[in-house]
Amino acid sequence: QVLRRSLQRGAALSAGSLLVYEARKLISGFAEVHASFKVEEVIEQADYLYGSGETEKLYQLLVQHKNSDDAELLWRLARASRDLAQLSSTSAEEKRQLAYEAFECAKKALEKNESNFAAHKWYAICLSDVGDFEGIKTKIGNAIVIKEHFQRAIELNPKDATTIHLIGIWCYCFAEMPWYQRKIASTLFATPPTSTFQEALRYFHMAEEADPNFYSKNLLYLGKTYLKLNNKKMALLWLSKAKDYPAHTEEDKQV
Q1: Which CATH class name applies to 31-157?
Q2: Per residue, what are the HEC states of 6-53?
């Protein structure tokens, strides 16, 4: 009888433990689904605010999720931090703080998902921005890494016009580089990175083909590059397009 009671008690305990385990599993599953829905909801709100040019509201929404492990949220926060830094109303100290904040978010996004093209793109952009505060030697020293991440972003998403444009900017900057910066580059690299205005022009046109009229700055740089190549007729064409571009953002107004 004692043995029977012990066995019955053990069976009851096992059944109870099993029920608790299953309940926990169910609750955990619901929590994961809920978290997933929440992330999608935040991303949807963020993309709407970004499209509306609501830079400050977008930053306030996303900064609440700075400890997230979701690469999609993190690269968007990096972009929002950078956009906030670009505003004319942002102080010099805040610009610096936001640049480093954006870089850390982009770095974390890349660590969480190396197959995310936008994480590579924003890591490269933010690494370049940080170089502005650390001097020309650091900026040139990071140049190869920056280009590699842009190229990886294009491999992962060949239709992303913005990344193609950014490689064009990279080429333009190295084509335009003054002699003293070239000297610094030659001390940092056995074979210093170089480019030409023709190469830059090719990328700007590729970006325009991928997504026509997508970005005021691409139109501006097409015009500027044609000027560098002494083609005033084509320069006028693209600079006129840049001038007539609807100004939705602070950057559009600067362009």
Answers
A1: mainly alpha
A2: HHHHHHHHHHHHHHHHHHHHHHHHHHHHHHHHHHHHHHHHHHHHHHCC
- 3-7, 38-42, 205-209: segment of lowest average pLDDT: 3-7
Nearest to 254 by CA among 242, 241, 240: 242
Give the position of tokens 């936001």.
98
Interval 82-106: pLDDT, tens: 999 988 899 999 999 999 999 999 9
pLDDT at 33: 44
Q: Which residues contact 230 (CB under 8 A, 6 or more apart)?
A: none
Domain assignments of the chain as residue spans, ordered by start: 31-157
* Tokens of residue 40, six digits: 């999608």
Residue in 130, 139, 203 with CA at minimum distance from that of residue 166: 203
- DSSP labels, 150-165: HHHHHHH-TT-HHHHH
Q: How far apart (Å, rounded) are the C-alpha atoms in residues 99 and 89?
A: 15
Tokens 């169910």 belong to: 26
pLDDT tens digits for range 64-74: 999 999 999 99
Distance CA(223)–CA(234), nearest Å, equals 7
How is residue 187 written in tokens? 């001390």
| Tokens representing residue 96 in the block | 């610096």
